[in-house]
Design a protein that fits this description.
Glutaredoxin; alpha+beta
Length: 218
């Protein structure tokens, strides 16, 4: 039995969870694991991050690595196209959304989600970097009807989790959504949200967020 460890507010934990659910792979879940530099956790996750996947006593870290393992180990319901170039384009989309959109927007999170402050310099840098990221997303995304083309792929799992938080963070930081110019995005995300696994992960994340907020106000 596979065991996924992390917490349900994490995009990256939820990306792996969606992959497992969409592939129909049975797994256990420990949703009470948090990033930590304590020796006990670093012994399981070398960078102290989440998620991790435990497989026969071996621990894998990094969500994309975990998803690649799942694709190799459970090929019966693939989340990548069979054609090598098409597979590479899916990986390209995932890398772009994570490195050039979500990771860039994450520099806003302390100020917009956790009560911190944002310097004018940080705002300007993030705006400039996100503008390039959005430009590239428009060029790479196909929405036909899925983000990489005709077939549902792991890129759709990543998009459903990462792009809404980029929208939310930028609305709060800048007063506008940097993704508003991607006209196909809202109907696309609505379509994904109607898939049973996506609907369940979305609701579970809302529940986890509410519990986290309640703990913070105690």
């Amino acid at each position: 039995m596979l065991k996924l460890c992390g917490f349900r507010v994490s995009n990256y934990h939820n990306k792996v969870r969606l992959a497992l659910m969409e592939k129909g792979v049975q797994f256990e879940e420990d949703a009470n694991c948090w990033p930590s530099q304590k020796e006990e956790w670093v012994g399981r996750s070398p960078m102290g991050k989440v998620p991790i996947l435990e497989v026969d006593g071996i621990t894998l870290s990094e969500s994309q690595v975990i998803c690649e393992y799942l694709e190799d180990a459970y090929p019966q319901k693939p989340l990548y196209p069979g054609d090598p170039l098409a597979r590479a384009r899916v990986r390209e989309l995932i890398a772009h959304m994570e490195l050039h959109l979500e990771l860039v927007a994450r520099r806003l999170y302390p100020g917009v989600f956790f009560g911190g402050t944002l310097s004018d310099e940080t705002r300007e840098q993030v705006q400039n970097d996100l503008a390039k990221g959005v430009r590239t997303l428009k060029r790479l995304a196909r929405f036909a009807p899925y983000i990489a083309g005709n077939d549902f792929t792991l890129a759709d799992c990543a998009a459903f989790l990462h792009l809404p938080i980029v929208s939310l963070a930028t609305r709060q930081a800048f007063g506008y959504d940097v993704l508003d110019g991607v006209s196909q995005l809202k109907p696309y995300l609505k379509m994904l949200g109607e898939r049973p696994a996506f609907a369940r992960v979305y609701e579970d994340r809302k529940t986890a967020q509410a519990a986290m907020a309640a703990r913070a106000t105690r």
